[in-house]
Amino acid sequence: MHKLLLSVAFIFTATISFPQIIINEGSNKNYQAIADEDGEYEDWIELYNAGSSPVDIFNFSLSDDPANTTMWTFPHYILAPGAYKVIYLSGKNRYQTSPFTPCVSSTSYAPVGGWNTHTFTTPYNWDGVSNLVINVCSYSSAGYTVNSTFNQTSTAYASVTGAWQDGGPGICGATNGAPFYTRPNMQLNGITIGTGTIVNGNTDYPAPYGNWYWASRTQMLIPAAELTAAGLTAGNINSLAFDVVAPDPCTYDYVDIALNVTPNTAMTNTFIPDAGYNFHTNFKISGGGENIYLYNASGTLVSTLNVDCGMYDNSVGSFPDASSTIKLFGPPTPGATNNASTPYTDYAATPDFSIGAGFYTTPFTVSIIDFNSGTSEVRYTVDGSDPSPSSPLYTGPVTIFFNTVLKARAFVPGYLPSEIRTATYFINVSHITPILSVTTENSNLYGPTGMFDNYNNDWLKAGYAEYFDSTSAHNMIFSMPVGMIMDGGAGGSRSQPQHSFRIEMDNSVLGDESVSYPFIPDRGQRTEYGKFYLRNGSNQYLRLPYKEACQARMMCKETNTYYAAYRPVTVYINGQYFGLYELREKYDKQMFEENDNATDSTIEILSMSYFYGLVLRAVEGDVDNFWNDYADFDALNVFDPDYWEKADSLFDQKYYVDYIISESWMGNVDWPGNNIKIYRSDATSNRWRFATIDMELALLPNSWTDCNFDHINYMLGQPTSNPYINIWLQGMQNNEFKNYFINRYADVMNTSYDTTRLLSIEEDFFNQTVGEMPNEFQRWGNPWDIPTQMNQFNNDHQTFRNELRCR
Predict the structure, then answer these.
(1) Is 635 exposed, middle or buried, given 0-12, 13-18 or 19+ CB atoms closer than 10 A?
(2) Cα-Cα-Cα-Cα dihedral of 79, 83, 88, 92, to 10°?
(3) How confident is the model over 624-645, as pLDDT tens digits?
(4) Are 199 and 150 in contact, with CB atoms under 8 Å apart?
(5) Which positions ≥6 away from 682 have C-beta within 8 Å?
(6) What's the whole-model pTM score?
(7) Which of 68, 216, 439, 660 could be a cystine partner for 210, CB 3.0 to 4.6 Å?
(8) Are 440 and 462 in contact (CB under 8 A)?
(9) Rounded (5°) CA angle 467-496-566
(10) What is the largest CA-CA distance in the chain?
């Protein structure tokens, strides 16, 4: 049997005068056992006070590196005798805070000009020394009108985080927003905080009464020093007022106000959660497990636990509590005693199949091989569900008559169940593309917990994936457990019956590791993939599904621009055909490591899209770094002889110009107010570069523009308040930049964007796809009229080619 190595060490000296604090339990495979305040499932450990008196763990520290004993240090926190405390090892670097206090819940509220006073139904008791955070959520079902405008004061720090949402009231659950350096003037208990005269536009934020996008969430920070300087003293806060210049002409379904205190001295792009923060370290547990060390305030090691779980939603820890005996638990017990758990020493051995997954022409039988001895039982399924103790008991060979996913698992008394063996068998299946077989519980896809039926949520689900190449033999490339999660935005990518989603082979909880294989021929130099995006064509669904991938290849392959490469792939889910997909690269760290030779620790990736509230958010790194650099850029003098060099030190000008040209040539108007990707690393000399994404609504067919659209004039009409285009708008006032842009545009028109080259690329994409479209229409279109749909597909192909010629 596979043996899991577990160890623990508790080290004490004769001079220790405090009760015993130990790492009692932990997990590096937290799938659905315990969620943090963001609703995310992070690595965790549990501290336990095994002594008889309370302990202030101030200056205790946690680390995964004995050479760095103070990697993450605790503030003052009292751990009572017999108490348990969960610590998330997430990398988020947070200290525990109290929940917000709801103070106001106004219904049918209509703003007025002047001071709008809200009297608290629940007073908030301010301690007189902490920074104050005010959270306001507002929503109006009246639809689009305008925001109220407010007198606001400029601040030297990010004093506000704001977000907004179309069409519904769900913004109060938003986790990310945009930082602002102006804060609405307020009165607390009638005491005025801020006397500035800056006024937001009626479609601009921050706007606590915001209806331009139906609903808004605003968090405003007021440092304690500003509060006391204004005359506020410790005690109950009973009212809050905003100084409205012009009210929004609608009645709000609700305006909710809540208060809290924070150690933060500036707001970020992340909202402080309603429930406050938990403890989060600044490091994570390795996906393969590792030792976690606890040191006391004197720097002495007092507890160690090797946190290495073989499967998800298991844990390791002391049995009984505080014991040096370490066992496996399933399910885990974060924040509670281990004494009531059933302890295990290992996992049962995983069964195997006599015939491997693959493609066959006639029915056959498969034997299941059990490597366990004694009273072992093997249970199996053929519908994609995970074998359980109630699944059919294996007693003899299983006959495979048609496409089938066979799953088997061993159950042995005294052991946790084995890993699940999975194999997909195809009978008389043929495709010209590679084939990806995905297997998962049906409830992971459909129903109240299903990702497809709840496609607006980014729920991580457990799955299994097998990938077969495009040769006639369809050789298997990989077979492994994976994570599955919805992907794509609001253009139909998530919501179509054939949903777009992401496969994560390297997911630290549900996956295994990156796969070494050149999945995308267009990226011949790239051989490592940890995840990929399975895209259904989005706005071109069942029309011209390769269009956006083709546009990106045309515009970016031979220029200084980043793009997500593509190849078509056929997907089966639980043995059933699920359609033709774009297999696309993800803009993640690994992409830039592989394609740009970037160093992992230097990579920052930012994203802004309509689906995530048109807020610039950090995929990797810190969005505040961008805003700081943009502020430096915005302060440049466009007539300075050194303007190009100074701008180039912040935003790589040659890359930026090629990025602008790619958007302009295609005539993309779903940009720059949407679909933004920004990146930097040591490979860019720490300068920001933009990546081209989501162009399929440009140029016919099924588009917002055609080849006659004047996109240069469109760009010149964009507001300077949009930073992503303002870099160009300012640059065009500088002769060096303007001349470079014009000359570079002419150069690429005559080379990379030569019509013959573009038509050749389009024809290649068409040929990779056309043979699979009848299957696609049979599955997702109108199976009674495939000829008409194929005719439309061919017409769209020709329309796109005509647009390329015209452009």
Answers:
(1) exposed
(2) -30
(3) 899 889 999 999 999 999 999 9
(4) yes
(5) 598, 599, 602
(6) 0.87
(7) 216
(8) yes
(9) 40
(10) 85
